[in-house]
Design brief:
105 residues; alpha+beta; elongated; 3-stranded antiparallel beta sheet
């Protein structure tokens, strides 16, 4: 997978659905982030694979881990690539009436 990403840009898509109970009001969205990989040499790839970091990751990398060194930039939400677009989720929760003080709980 990392060989395919080397020197390319790909999209990370995360679908989120929120349902407020008991009335069932819903918010749904898809967050998209573009991740730009620089070219990765065979030596770098072997070194990264030896860390075992990519073996339990979607897309075979963790932007917050050692693979971050191969990513010069992203367009969009960093947290979307990590796993959950936090800012957008909080915005949608506010839209559903969730008190901002409850976000930390």
């Amino acid at each position: 997978m990392l060989q395919q990403l080397s020197g390319r840009t790909h999209s990370v898509l995360t679908g989120v659905a929120l349902v407020r109970l008991p009335d069932g009001e819903r918010r749904q969205f898809i967050e998209s982030t573009l991740v730009h990989f620089r070219p990765i040499t065979d030596e770098e790839l072997s070194s990264y694979l030896a860390t075992e970091e990519p073996y339990d990751k979607a897309g075979a990398y963790a932007i917050q881990g050692q693979a971050g060194r191969y990513i010069p930039r992203i367009e969009g939400c960093y947290f979307n690539v990590v796993g959950l677009p936090l800012s957008r989720v909080l915005t949608e929760l506010k839209g559903l009436g969730w008190p901002e003080g409850k976000f930390a709980e």
